[in-house]
């Protein structure tokens, strides 16, 4: 009996072992199904492809400056003696702005003008053969000389008539002839004096003196203007940097006048962006001081040169303000966005949905409950959106990002 019982126990043990194996297999399948079900519930954030206008832009910073600006600067080191204007005052071209202390400016200018007047008067006298008094006196002497000549000629003629009768001696005839000759000589000298009193060298000398005198006056006018500064333009005083009796160094700014109706933005662009810029391209301008406001303008001209500014290589250009309303303060820092290209009514997606691999672009598109990775062709792009020219249809859902625990892959459920 004992011998026949052993095989029976062995068969039971083998049966129980297979039960355990089967149970483990079933449990593995169940746990696998549960795990797979969990994996199929990956959470992703999506956006939909849609039609819109897409622009390619270049952004930078700029500063608002007047187109026509006059800085009143000190031409020499000295004291501010008087300020004739105040901030916000509208001034006309030629209006006095500020005076520097220079007690010699006016006397020097007055002396230069007096010397010039004297030189001009002498030049006129030389050109007209003397002063007006000289000419009047010469005319009187000329008339007297002519009368003397006529009398001498008449006397000689009378002597000659009497000589025919033998009533005049030779000595009397000689005296009458000499009188006429002397009268004629005096008359010729006076006539020459009236027409050729001064030589060509005299005329040149006084012309040179007049030219030198005018140059002296201009020089002294510059000196006077350096101390008495006027505005060469019509505009508004928008800043006064000096105060009365300030000691200002040569070249120091004292005040500024500008035409506030004509402002522009001066902006610097990075070297890689310069090739995309062209004259007339539209520009949007924003200022932190006025959130939500947008000013519009256009590039005046394409940058012509690249300069080194610290570690950067930049090009500067000006932007005309097309809708200047006088609400952008001068020297304000603004944000500048230049539209270099624009496509209207094209298919676009958010920029963060586009991915690249070795220069090839693709997206993760939601198809049913799975992700697919179709290749796409792109057009223009900016920091927010990108144009899709091939590979997607309107309303296609594309993945922006997944939860941190998930890795995007083709076929993810």
What is this structure, in a nutshell?
This protein is α+β, with helices and mostly antiparallel strands.
Description:
It is a single chain. The protein has helices spanning 2-39, 105-127, 132-163, 170-195, 200-227, 271-274, and strands spanning 44-48, 50-66, 69-73, 78-83, 90-91, 96-100, 228-230, 235-240, 247-248, 253-258, 263-270, 282-286, 295-299, 307-309, 312-321, 333-350, 355-357, 360-362, 365-367, 370-372, 377-381, 385-390, 397-402. Strand 19 (365-367) and strand 20 (370-372) form a beta hairpin. Helix 2 runs antiparallel to helix 5 (200-227). By secondary structure, the chain is of the alpha+beta class. 17% of the residues are buried. Helices cover 37% and strands 33% of the residues.
């Amino acid at each position: 009996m004992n011998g026949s019982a052993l095989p029976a126990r062995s068969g039971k043990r083998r049966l129980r072992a297979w039960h355990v194996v089967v149970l483990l297999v079933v449990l593995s399948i169940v746990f696998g199904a549960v795990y797979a079900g969990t994996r199929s519930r990956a959470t992703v954030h999506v956006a939909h492809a849609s039609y819109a206008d897409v622009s390619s832009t270049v952004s930078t910073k700029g500063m608002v400056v007047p187109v026509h600006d006059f800085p009143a600067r000190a031409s020499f080191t000295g004291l501010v003696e008087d300020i004739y204007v105040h901030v916000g005052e509208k001034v006309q071209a030629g209006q006095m702005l500020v005076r520097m202390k220079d007690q010699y400016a006016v006397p020097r200018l007055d002396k230069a003008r007096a010397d010039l007047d004297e030189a001009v008067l002498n030049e006129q006298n030389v050109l007209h053969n003397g002063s007006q008094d000289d000419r009047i006196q010469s005319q009187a002497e000329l008339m007297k000389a002519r009368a003397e000549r006529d009398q001498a000629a008449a006397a000689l003629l009378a002597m000659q008539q009497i000589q025919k009768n033998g009533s005049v001696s030779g000595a009397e005839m000689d005296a009458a002839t000499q009188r006429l000759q002397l009268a004629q000589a005096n008359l010729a000298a006076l006539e020459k004096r009236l027409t050729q009193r001064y030589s060509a060298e005299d005329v040149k000398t006084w012309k040179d003196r007049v030219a030198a005198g005018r140059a002296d006056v201009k020089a002294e006018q510059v000196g006077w203007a350096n101390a008495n500064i006027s505005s060469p333009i019509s505009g508004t005083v928008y800043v006064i940097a000096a105060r009365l009796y300030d000691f200002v160094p040569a070249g120091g700014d004292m005040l500024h006048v500008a035409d506030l109706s004509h402002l522009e933005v001066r902006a610097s662009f990075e070297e890689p962006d310069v090739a995309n810029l062209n004259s007339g391209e539209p520009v949007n301008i924003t200022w932190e001081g006025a959130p939500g406001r947008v000013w519009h303008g256009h590039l005046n001209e394409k940058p012509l040169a690249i300069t080194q500014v610290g570690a950067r290589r930049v090009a500067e250009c000006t932007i005309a303000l097309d809708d200047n309303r006088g609400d952008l303060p001068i020297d304000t820092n603004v944000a500048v966005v230049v539209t270099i290209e624009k496509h209207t009514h094209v298919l676009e997606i958010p920029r963060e949905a586009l991915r690249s691999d070795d220069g090839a672009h693709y997206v993760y598109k939601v198809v049913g409950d799975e992700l697919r990775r179709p290749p796409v062709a792109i057009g223009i792009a900016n920091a927010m959106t990108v144009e899709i020219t091939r590979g997607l249809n309107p309303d296609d859902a594309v993945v922006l990002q997944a939860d941190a625990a998930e890795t995007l892959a083709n076929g993810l459920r």
